[in-house]
Design goal:
Helices cover 37% and strands 13% of the residues. The protein is built from 10 helices and 9 strands. Strands 4-5-8-3-9 form a 5-stranded parallel β-sheet. Helix 4 crosses helix 9.
Length: 295
């Protein structure tokens, strides 16, 4: 609503359109004034992302997922997640599937899912393949792949409005304390300050989950009592295995993507998604971030 006020206040409604709205008026009026006076004007108090349309007095930003779910075998992609992404760790596999399922079932409930997932490993092992497939399910309206720091840490963040997944690809972490505070706030916080270009900053709801991809040793600002990050070292079992990924891609486009979305939308969620599982990869991130007096 604030953005509408600022951007439309000087627009003029054409006479013909105005006649249809208010038949007793004949002079051009500023669009904003006409809109405010109209008896059928809708007013919203905040925004949300709701799949069921039950939004109360909040404007629903949800435009649907990119594809329609359909019951279909998705075992190839599930096996890929288990064997490659989770390195055959059943506990992490079940947790990660719950994390994905919650994002699709309850996109508006960010406060129930405040852990970011980080995949560390060499190039060509499947990290980006995994991220690309999840983005494909969500669609560009509600997801974004970020490869430039300015898009995340810069002043202008209007493009983050309405996102449920932000994928950070090779965004290096160099110990910047200012970025650390901002990043942790975005990962766990339910509010986000957005400054549209040429406009005053506004406070919006933050629905975004975070997925980090990288091959650098130090990816994240993890503290000794870290609970925000699930860090996984992805094995190189299928590094540059083009036949393997080609086969996965073929099955994905033959019904598995619709089947995987159906699976996630119907999966029963049982894990605490506010607490990350402690892994050796997370321990390594903590050790790399220790101050001299903490070592």
């Amino acid at each position: 609503q604030i953005l509408f006020f600022e951007r439309r206040e000087n627009k003029i409604i054409p006479q013909q359109s105005l006649d249809l709205l208010l038949s007793n008026l004949r002079l051009p009026l500023p669009m904003l004034k006409t809109w405010i006076k109209h008896p059928k004007r809708r007013t919203y108090f905040g925004v949300t992302l709701s799949r069921n349309g039950n939004t109360g007095q909040k404007y629903n930003l949800f435009s649907g997922w990119a594809i329609e779910p359909k019951q279909h075998d998705c075992s190839n992609f599930l096996n890929f997640i288990y064997n490659v992404i989770c390195d055959q760790n059943q506990k992490i596999y079940e947790w990660l599937l719950d994390w994905l399922a919650h994002m699709f079932q309850f996109p508006e409930r960010k406060s129930d899912s405040t852990v970011a997932v980080a995949l560390r490993g060499l190039k060509g092992i499947g990290k980006n393949f995994f991220a690309e497939k999840i983005i494909e399910l969500i669609g560009e309206r509600h997801s974004m792949l970020i490869q430039q720091e300015d898009l995340l840490f810069g002043r202008f963040k209007e493009h983050l409005l309405g996102l449920v997944l932000i994928v950070l690809d090779e965004i290096g972490w160099g110990g910047n304390k200012k970025q650390e505070k901002e990043l942790k706030g975005m990962v766990t916080g339910d509010k986000l300050v957005v400054e549209p270009k040429g406009r005053k900053p506004i406070l919006i709801d933050n629905f975004a989950r975070f997925l980090f991809l990288g091959n650098e040793s130090w990816m994240l600002p993890a503290s000794v009592d870290e609970r925000r990050f699930l860090v996984l070292d992805v094995p190189d079992t299928h590094r540059k295995d083009y036949d393997y990924f080609s086969n996965l891609h073929k099955h994905w486009n033959q019904g598995e993507k619709e089947g995987f979305l159906y699976y996630l939308l119907n999966r029963k969620i049982s894990h605490n998604l506010r607490e990350a599982i402690w892994t050796e990869a997370l321990k390594d991130q903590v050790l790399r971030g220790l101050e001299p007096h903490q070592e």
